[in-house]
Design goal:
By secondary structure, the chain is of the alpha+beta class. About 55% of the residues lie in helices and about 10% in strands. The relative contact order is 0.10.
């Protein structure tokens, strides 16, 4: 899917990497300058791994290739799944028991992390991989494995903001190991790493968190909403998704607690903490898969909590964005594995069959719901390759504001001029010249329902129903062509079955089957002739029309 659908063009925050590559061309840079850039915060995150990967790709390939960045990010995704598989093997689980995990994770529900947004691929995916690998290494008896876990944990901390959770969970694992040497080393490592993190943020960026602390109930509600967000395929009810998340967290928390408690003999563990810790240490194997999976699950759960803390004061559906669903799906997958390890052997087959049936439903629904959303984002990015050449216009920017348009366009222009990035040829420019032209029709536009979002007016254009049907695995792209006397621009026709992205942005779900969102202030003011173009059996077809619209900046 990455090979077929990823596009070598930056998307929103990906322009950070272009700036890094441009800055790297500055003559006379010292090691301090490079480190300052690599550790420079991106919002509340320090994305050392992402910046380093982008710069290495630039030096190796000669220009930044965003498809390569997706490949690197997805390799860490595969690494996380492999770690879960190895833990399942060590727990005595059969291969068939792992199939629900594969189906749950290898689907397009979190396409922003895997296919359309490179910075997410290099933040969210590696952060989990490095954390899981660090937990696995530090739980082993080998001292070499423990010391190897330190740089891995460092990469987790400096891949994404949630990596800071590694410090606390790692401390729990080391306390269970009973090694004072490891405890001393870990505390020193934590102090140095955390000190570096705080120092960098203090000198460059200081996130505001006071307002979030005033609304703890909203943060908790958002946390349960995110934990149950896998259910978004079945329902858009905020209350139902919160209930699903609450049930999942409560159930997995119960079985982890119950597993710990049944290894205790002390009647009052809170009054005999040292004895309680020793009993767990000696009766529950520290290197066992249950302990490592519990650490991984706790890491994912706390990640969801931190995301909710950072975003819950806004619009609740913003917590249901595809890039965050990755953590919820991973939590569900780990919770399933913990459930199998908790169950007696004779019940595991039945539980795995039920999980497999649910995972198959989620897998198929995800393709029906999310593949159309993924293809629409891909079409936006492909449109950028044409529209930017025509008028330095980027239509993949956030639609609610025009503040990003000229800024990111100028970055792209500088990157192209300085040779740090090669804008791919628009696949439409050549192909449309060879397209089959049909007889003109009265007009493709059925309705223009314009509305205001944020700072700009959006034209919501409903396209006629004579387009090829958008089926579950439809790979045909459909575009609206708007042509003036001097320019031709293209916009993707969104034929997603659910218009989930529109719902998450507006809260409205009753959109037409074929819809185009156009921000008219991006266009030069002119009269535009409307046409449709689509790909049919590897041949582009153009449907001209007699319809036109006058629109553009200042209308």
């Amino acid at each position: 899917m990455v090979y077929r659908l990823a596009v070598n063009i930056p998307y929103i925050d990906d322009y950070t990497f272009l700036v890094d590559c441009i800055d790297s061309q500055t003559k006379g840079l010292t090691l301090t300058d490079y480190l300052s850039r690599l550790f420079h915060p991106h919002g509340e995150h320090i994305i050392l791994f992402a910046r380093l990967t982008a710069l290495l790709d630039y030096y190796i390939e000669g220009s930044l290739n965003f498809r390569t960045l997706f490949i690197v990010g997805n390799l860490t995704f595969v690494g996380s799944v492999y770690i879960l598989y190895r833990l399942a093997q060590r727990g005595g689980l059969k291969l068939m028991y792992f199939l629900p995990v594969v189906l749950l994770l290898f689907q397009p529900q979190f396409y922003e992390n895997t296919t359309t947004w490179a910075i997410c691929a290099l933040q969210h995916l590696p952060a989990l991989f490095f954390a899981f690998l660090a937990f696995d290494l530090m739980s082993r008896s080998s001292e070499k494995a423990f010391f190897l876990s330190l740089p891995i944990a460092f990469l987790s901390v400096f891949s994404n903001g949630n990596g800071l959770i590694v410090f606390a969970i790692g401390l729990l694992i080391i306390l269970l190991s009973g090694s004072r040497t490891r405890l001393f080393v870990w505390l020193i490592f934590t102090a140095l790493s955390l000190g570096l993190y705080v120092y960098v943020h203090h000198t460059t960026h200081s996130p505001e968190i006071g307002s979030n602390l005033k609304h703890p109930l909203r943060v908790i509600a958002g946390f349960f909403l995110m934990a149950g967000s896998v259910g978004l395929l079945f329902s858009r009810s905020i209350g139902l998704l919160m209930a699903i998340g609450l049930c999942e967290i409560a159930f997995v928390g119960f079985l982890i607690s119950q597993t710990v408690i049944r290894h205790l003999t002390t009647k009052k563990p809170l009054l005999h903490f040292s004895a309680w810790l020793r009993q767990i240490r000696y009766s529950l194997p520290i290197a066992g898969p249950f302990v490592v999976l519990s650490a991984c699950y706790l890491y994912v759960v706390l990640t969801l909590l931190t995301i909710s803390f950072a975003r819950s004061l806004g619009w609740y559906p913003s917590l249901l964005l595809p890039r965050f669903l990755w953590f919820a799906a991973m939590g569900t997958a780990i919770g399933y594995q913990l459930t199998l390890l908790w169950l007696k052997t004779r019940y595991r087959l039945l539980a795995s069959r039920v999980a497999l049936a649910i995972a198959l439903i989620i897998y198929c629904l995800s393709y029906w719901v999310n593949l159309g959303e993924l293809r629409n984002v891909r079409q936006l990015l492909l449109s950028d390759t044409h529209n930017w050449r025509a008028h330095k216009m980027l239509i993949s920017m956030p639609v609610s504001t025009n503040q990003h348009d000229h800024f990111y366009s100028s970055i792209l222009q500088a990157a192209v001029q300085k040779g740090v990035y090669k804008l791919p040829a628009s696949p439409l420019d050549t192909d449309l010249r060879k397209a089959i032209s049909l007889p003109p029709i009265a007009g493709p536009l059925v309705q223009d329902s314009s509305f205001v979002m944020g700072e700009r007016r959006i034209h919501c254009l409903s396209i006629n129903s004579d387009l090829p049907d958008g089926t579950m695995f439809d790979s045909r792209d459909v575009y609206l062509l708007v042509k003036s006397s001097t320019h031709t621009f293209i916009w993707p026709v969104n034929r997603s079955q659910t218009k989930l992205a529109y719902y998450l942005q507006t809260g409205v779900s009753n959109w037409k089957a074929s819809t185009v969102w156009m921000c008219a202030d991006q266009l030069p003011l002119a009269n535009y002739q409307l046409s449709l173009a689509w790909l049919d059996n590897k041949q582009w077809v153009i449907q001209p029309s007699h319809q036109s619209m006058t629109m553009g900046e200042g209308e």
